[in-house]
Write a structure and sequence with these properties.
By secondary structure, the protein is α/β, with parallel strands linked by helices. It contains 6 helices and 11 strands.
Amino acid sequence: MPAITFVGHAGVAVRAGAFRLLADPRLATSGAFLGAWHQYPRNDHLDPGALADAGWVALSHEHLDHFDPWFIERLSARTRILIPRYPGPAFRERTARAAGSRQVIEIAAWEKFALDNRGSWPTVIPELSPMCHDAAFLIVADGRSVLHCNDARLTAAPELAVPLAGPPLYRDPDVHNDHLVGLLKHANAPARRAVEAYETGRDESERIIVVPGGRTYDIPRYCPHAVSA
């Protein structure tokens, strides 16, 4: 049976018979988003060096409380990094820069990517909102299933039933983010069309470079869980 360990914030470690996988590990102590967001509860008691030897790392999206360049740069040279295949190149390019010579592998939605020769695999379940590039990971390890939702709001629809052993499992959309936008998009057709036209027509690769005190910060202009900068 695989062992599942919480490693702080949205981070999860999956240890199976033939591999170890980390999902959204965040170990840097400097804080994300210009030092404004820190892990709670604290995870600075963990040994980043021991975790960095994982064979696989799955990264869900580019928000800096899930995507930790400091830790990615310290991964073992043999670690392979799995990311969802999104329509735009921004996340792939940003991951490649942090990964250096490490292999970065994009997984298409619902593709079963083999992790070993024992039938273990992850797949990507994308959030359907055009507002977000986010996805959950369903990880099957040694015959057991782990659904790592991170920030992804999965639609409660039959076509998104998670294929676990036993009855289908659904996850209702989260309600703690984007209350107003969610109302507009799902309750009023003209407003929904207007919002989606704006969201799908913007340039999501646009970034803002801030250089305070000699340090450079590369910030996405659009944050789907907040507002446009």
